[in-house]
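Subject: Predicted fold for Amidase domain-containing protein, 485 residues

User T.R. writes:
Posting the sequence so we have a shared reference for the thread.
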Amino acid sequence: MEGNSFTIEEATIEEIHQGFVQKKLTTRQLVDYYLQKIQTLNPILRGVIEVNPDARELADKADEEREAERKKNGGGLGTTLGELHGIPVLLKDTIGTNDKLNTTAGSYALLGSKVPRDAGVVEKLRNAGAIIFGKASMSEWYKFRSLNGVPNGWCARAGQGVNPYVQSETPCGSSSGSAISVAANMVAVSLGTETYSSIICPADHNSVVGFKPTVGLTSRAGVIPMAPRWDTVGTICRTVSDAVYLLNVIVGFDTRDAETIEASIFIPEGGYKKFLNKDGLKRKRLGIVRYPFVEKLHDPTQSAAFKNHIGILRQEGAIVIDNLKIEDVDKILEPNHSGEISIMMAEFKISINAYLKELIDSPEKLNEYDQHTFISAEKTEGFGDQEKAAVETLEKLSQNGFEKLMQEYELDAMVTPGSGACPVLAIGGFPAITVPAGYGNDGMPFGICFGGLKGSEPKLIEIAYAFEQTTRVRKPPPSFTESSI
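User M.O. replies:
I've generated the structure tokens; pasting them so everyone works from the same file.
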């Protein structure tokens, strides 16, 4: 902010709220700015499926509420406005909203269907004063429409999502639109979901922060399911602080999601903001797992950056234990051999049918849309002996692998480059956060991933925030036009 002007580009939640307080910005101006960016960039990037037609009205209402608060408090804003008051939030197109927006998983199959109520996380966003800005594009049906035939970031309703840094490269999936839109400043912050790598990978590939919380820390009620055993709702933002501010609002118990009962014990008193500590790396025990994640780095710039970042972790006071190995990691990373696919198929059949029954208006047969994974899933016979055996196998792989590693070396976090370690974290419902870590010779972004045991979000926040504040690697995508694609 300079003088009486306010720069919206790259502005954080805290800066936006400062702009509101100092009367340098209104929510209507903010929403109009993002709408203009979407009009200009979305035909190229295809990160947004649809915008809330009531966005401007909601912005005006937020401005009126803020002005009324000022008058009530003699010119000050007081403390009654919500944590995200006036902040536009873009939602992955699987997170249900009981308004004029559709919830379709990127598919025409669910276009026009109506959800009975807001998703649990949406209720929390509205209560915090956030503006539900629209729905982000994604890999259709979490890329589960076809396990082989759907490109990352493609869905029927929006087309192929485009990476704003290197348009020829993948934006990754399935929360691709959430990452694309935040990276390109088409919105302030967004929500995504992850089952296997769907927050961490697009965040990594689009130079933004992705925070996948412990399964059950955020409610999945009202979210189109994939595999409830592993599904989680998380945040995709440009900074660690924004990711934490957003997470702080959406966590908590929900009567419609039993997993939140157990996970709610992990929520610290006073929330997560207090862990935004610039000295957060001091005395943290960090385990570097090289095989096979470092070996898979083909870009020498990325390899050199990862080596340099390990040095920075040490310089900032972390205790780094290098060259650690996860037992049977190759089995974990091969979903057909470890049994994840069979579990996903069975869980998807059960959970999607339950979701569809709750809809006020819904299609009778998804198979009519040539989604052959649905046909395969429908052929499964529930959670039988094969699926139970696969669950036991995965639990043992997790216990004897990642969990043993963390406990044996008393680690606060595992550190890996890129998004390759997502399956290791997925099978146990563990949290992870990725932070921008650099750009390849071609400009392609890459990140560094910190993963921990259940409920370790406070430590991960301290580690990620301290790393981000020390390195400050992220930069906005280059300017481009449709003719440059």
